[in-house]
Amino acid sequence: MKKTQIILVVVVIVVVGILYSLPRVVVDNEENSENIGQGDVAAADSVAEAHDVQIPETERGTVSGLIANLENAESKENFTIFADSLASFYQKAGMYDSAAYYLGKGADQYSDLALMEKAGNAYYEAYGFAMDQGKMNMLAEKTRGYLNQVLEADPDRLDLKTKVAMTYVSSSNPMQGIMMIREVLEEDPENQEALYNMGVLSMQSGQYKRAVERFETLVGYYPENVQGQFYLGVSYFESKQKKKAKNQFQKVKDMTEDPMILSSVDNYLGQL
Fold first, then answer.
1. In the UniProt record, does the keyword Repeat occur (predicted)?
2. 172-177: Cβ within 8 A, 24+ apart
3. Of 19, 21, 75, 212, which cross-links 235 as Cys (Cβ 3.0–4.6 Å)?
4. What CA–CA distance (Å, rounded) separates 166 from 176?
5. With the CA atoms of 239, 223, 230 and 240 taken in that order, what torsion angle do they form, in degrees rounded to the nearest 10?
6. pTM
7. Which of 15-19, 74-78, 123-127, 195-199 has the lowest mean pLDDT?
């Protein structure tokens, strides 16, 4: 799913954690928007330094070599190769903020839109896994910094606009993000990421009947979207539509073998 890339195509348990860490806002009411406060932003360099300490002894030589090659690279091509290699290493290790840090170095050095998009997407992925508010703020700001430059050159990139919008949802101005997602849906009513995210936000704010509408629309267009199908079941459950919830969860069980999703489904079915 959200890889067409739906936001936070992380396993459902992680998504649930992020879902309930968001501020409680009413997504279908109009509110005045304010500019997001910048606050104190942590230095990105400290992220990579902190993770370097966590690298297993057997891997440190490889990483140190890649970093040295990166610092000595004399061409954009070589710099990108080493930055991508470092990012790949950190992503496999689950250190998504460090992966984003090295991709960001390439974008900063060469001001290339493709590199900025890659860095912005990496920071967005790291943002999706962050739980500390200060870290979330820093990663969200980094995401916007890179992706907004791509959007300035190509305003039709609704996928990137949706990601930028979602970084505002956990900020001091969540309605700014919600309004941006609405704009995406006005332009593209079938946009998979926007429909999914509006459904998630409706759930988070306790508007389960609205969430049902969003997820029913989503899976109507994209029946293979497992997370959407799962959250439709949750929305039925929370809106007291027990028969629909049971049928929906049974449908999800036939769609996936992911043990985390199946465990969650069984938990809900046990309550019906």
1. yes
2. 172/34, 172/36, 172/37, 173/33, 173/34, 173/35, 173/36, 174/22, 174/23, 174/25, 175/25, 175/31, 175/32, 175/33, 176/33, 176/34, 176/36
3. 212
4. 9
5. 10
6. 0.75
7. 15-19
